[in-house]
Amino acid sequence: MSTRAFITGVSGTELTAVEREFIRDQRPWGFILFKRNVDTPAQVAALVAELRAVAGTGDAPVLIDQEGGRVQRLGPPHWPVYPPGAIFSSLYDTDSALGLTAARLSARLIAADLADLGITVDCLPLADVPVSGADAVIGNRAYGTEPGKVAAIARAVTEGLEQGGVLPVLKHIPGHGRATADTHFKLPTVDTPRDELERTDFAAFKPLADLPMAMTAHVVFSAVDPAHPATTSATMIAQVIRSVIGFQGLLMSDDVSMNALSGNIAERTRAIFAAGCDVALHCNGNIEEMREVAGETPELSGRALERANAALAARKTPQPFDRAAARTELDALIARANTASA
């Protein structure tokens, strides 16, 4: 069955009749969940199953942002708290092997939580490299400020997710670390020279170019394209994401409804595809906006379809795993990191 090249959110913990009709008619490639969609494990699992049943595709990807720290859509009392990326960075500085172990364990535990619910994609890892003076939207979510370390920890996170049968989404390509505004509210412009960007921001993504999926940054890089954020910049996608970084997987936009993008929802969606993104992402569950996105979204076909199929095919069978032992080990490593930074 053919699908359309967008990922959509829904409004609540159960599908409405209108949403069921929309999904059947518009055939989104995938779905994304947020806190508004989460109550109990049984409820989330039922919602995930219903999304796939209504879509008529048993392998439709269901995404979530489950990083740890400030960005956890699943949390207490039903799911544990996970550490922010800065914890892995701190451990890495003490002992690089321990930092990578903690990152891998955390991601493996997250993958187990997601697999219990039928969620198959996590919007993780981050390869953003923050700098002094940048907006706090990345902050302690980052794995450090040195590209090589960031890439190494991101790879360990990827391995943990993959070991649990969950696909990773690399974000926010080609880098959100220098942004001086939160792109949920405003468009930031980065005026750093291109050679410096290639040495730092872009360099953190290059070792991860083999990942199956990546999410764009709603950030203008004036040295490459002063007029458009990366998400809607054909120059940025062709020259930097696909060439300098070398990413050849499925490229999805960050959320269409974020205020960093200009124009109405339909105009933003057209611009995303015109720039070279494979899939548009719409998150807020507003049915009128969902219809606008669907109205401007093509069938998933050609190279985009090949990348989408390759991404889904990259999902691995979960490996044997002692969840209790892994949690005990992770907690011990977190305590060590907290002690070291005290």
Folded structure, characterized:
- Its EC number is 3.2.1.52.
- This is beta-N-acetylhexosaminidase.
- It is built from twelve helices and 13 strands.
- The chain is an alpha/beta fold and about 350 residues long.
- Strand 4 and strand 5 form a beta hairpin.
- The N and C termini lie far apart (about 55 Å).
- The model has no long low-confidence stretch (mean pLDDT about 95).
Summarize the structure.
With 342 residues, the chain is α/β, with parallel strands linked by helices. Helix content is 43%, strand content 13%. The model has no long low-confidence stretch (mean pLDDT 96).
Shape, per Cα inertia axes: globular
Give the helix/strand class. alpha/beta
Largest beta-sheet details: 9 strands, parallel
Computed over alpha carbons, the radius of gyration is: 19 Å
The count of DSSP E runs of length 2 or more, i.e. the number of strands, is 13
Q: Indicate the proportion of strand residues.
A: 5-15%
How do the helices and strands follow one another from N- to C-terminus? EHEHEEEHHEHEEEHHEEHEHEHHH
Our measurement of the CA-to-CA distance between the termini, rounded to an integer number of angstroms, reads 55 Å
The portion of residues assigned to helices is 40-55%
Poorly predicted runs: none
Task: Give the oligomer, counting copies of the same chain as homo and different chains as hetero.
Answer: single chain
How many distinct helices? 12
Side-by-side strand order of the widest sheet = 7-6-3-2-1-13-12-10-8
Q: Mean of the pLDDT scores?
A: 96
Keywords: Glycosidase, Hydrolase
Domain Glycoside hydrolase family 3 N-terminal: 16-293
GO molecular function, one term: beta-N-acetylhexosaminidase activity
InterPro entries: GH, Glyco_hydro_3_N, Glyco_hydro_3_N_sf, NagZ_Beta-hexosaminidase
